[in-house]
Amino acid sequence: MKKTLLHICCAPCSITCIDTLRADGIEPVGYWYNPNIHPVTEYRQRRDTLIGYAKAVGVELRLRDEYGLREFVRLVSPDLEDRCGICYELRLFESARYAAENGFDSFCTTLLVSPYQNHELLVETGHRAAERFGIEFLPYDFRPRFREGQQRARELGLYMQKYCGCVFSEEERYIRKKR
Questions:
Q1: Which of these, 22, 87, 100, 115, has the minimum number of CB atoms within 10 Å of its CB?
Q2: What is the distance between the alpha carbons of residues 67 and 32, in angstroms, rounded to a whole number?
Q3: How far apart, in whole angstroms, are the C-alpha atoms of residue 94 and residue 159?
Q4: Is 5 strand, coil or helix?
Q5: CA gap 172, 105 in Å, rounded
């Protein structure tokens, strides 16, 4: 069985990703590293919801628990139009590094479940991270099960966020809402 690290952005997005990997004979170990999430109350709510969900479904969870707003903003501020690409790189390269240094064979990310993310860029970034750290990236397309996961999260009463996570996606949410 592959020893796979699953970068997890939030509990709702993890539901069908975990199910899919398990159906494929892979028992993932969850990895929380999301320095992009703002504000700190949102960060804590998502982290704590994931901790509870992982325990409920028997997924081992490892936390790199750093609220990284300042570093995230420093990294994306030179090119706000490419902030998602920078964010993907930040999280996937860290996940690949952690996986390689901790004896994992492969890694994946729950970001691949969202139809709101740039799937092709995520896959390309995952492969670059894998190459850099000498580990396999599993480029699953979890998107067909996105709505199912969201529905199950509602049924389970999990906290469900209203935006991607960064301060800029929160801003966009309110601008769209105002229109």
A1: 115
A2: 11
A3: 25
A4: strand
A5: 37
Strand order in the sheet with 61-63: 61-63, 29-32, 4-7, 106-109, 136-137
pLDDT digit string (tens) for 50-78?
A: 999 999 999 999 999 989 889 988 998 88
What sign results for the dihedral spanned by CA atoms 135, 6, 21, 113? Answer: negative
Q: pTM for this one?
A: 0.94
Residue with tokens 């601008």: 175
Cis? peptide before 39, omega within 30° of 0: yes
- Residues 21-43: tens digit of each pLDDT: 999 999 999 999 999 998 999 99
Strands 106-109 and 61-63: unpaired
Instruction: Read off the CATH number of the domain in which 47 is found.
Output: 3.40.50.620
Residue range of the domain that includes 114: 4-178
Q: How many domains are contained in the chain?
A: 1
Q: What is the DSSP letter of 77?
A: G
Contacts of 114 by beta carbon, 8 Å cutoff, 6+ apart: 13, 143, 146
Closest to 3 in 3D by CA, of 123, 127, 94, 101:
101
